[in-house]
Recover the amino acids of this structure.
């Protein structure tokens, strides 16, 4: 499935407004939506134009992935029954839309969403301290202190003493997981910069 890039959607907000309008014109009701960095989550209640008349009034979760061609924003729709690979769907959306929770990929996807939220919550509760040892992507570091830019800490690589900055979210996730493997990523993709 490809991407749809409508004409005259120069911003993400314009694209979201178009998507909401299209769903309304199709007779559906958008009960909730949340814009993330590169996608928007929606809880949709099917209206009178549903493919199967038995589905009228049922609610499901859909994710519109978004990208830009430099002029306009486009989208690709991936609903929960298609096996979305994004797991940052708000937990409240899972409670709002139970009608398709048993279909295809939905149970596994919903479980993964709950696990992702639990990991994020556990990682957010970790307090970082100067001198803490951490294993980031297979390399040992010690924390030096907060970086001047919010969201980063200065870390010292144990092998050669090189000072780098690392995203706090990566540090906390590594501590929470206690072991994160590199998996073929390069240093620039890890949030580590000199």
């Amino acid at each position: 499935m490809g991407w749809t890039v409508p004409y005259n959607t120069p911003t993400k907000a314009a694209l979201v407004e178009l998507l909401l309008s299209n769903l309304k014109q199709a007779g559906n009701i958008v009960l909730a939506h949340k814009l993330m960095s590169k996608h928007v989550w929606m809880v949709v209640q099917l209206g009178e134009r549903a493919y199967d008349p038995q589905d009228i009034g049922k609610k499901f979760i859909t994710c519109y992935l978004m990208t830009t061609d430099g002029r306009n924003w486009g989208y690709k729709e991936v609903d929960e029954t298609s096996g979305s690979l994004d797991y940052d769907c708000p937990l409240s959306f899972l409670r709002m839309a139970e009608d398709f929770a048993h279909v295809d990929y939905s149970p596994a996807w919903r479980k993964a969403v709950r696990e992702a939220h639990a990991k994020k919550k556990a990682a957010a509760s970790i307090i970082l301290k100067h001198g803490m040892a951490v294993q980031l992507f297979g390399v040992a570091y010690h924390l030096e202190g907060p970086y001047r830019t919010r969201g980063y800490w200065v870390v010292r690589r144990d092998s050669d003493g090189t000072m780098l900055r690392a995203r706090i979210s990566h540090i906390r996730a590594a501590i929470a997981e206690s072991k994160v493997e590199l998996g073929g990523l390069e240093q620039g993709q890890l949030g580590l910069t000199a």
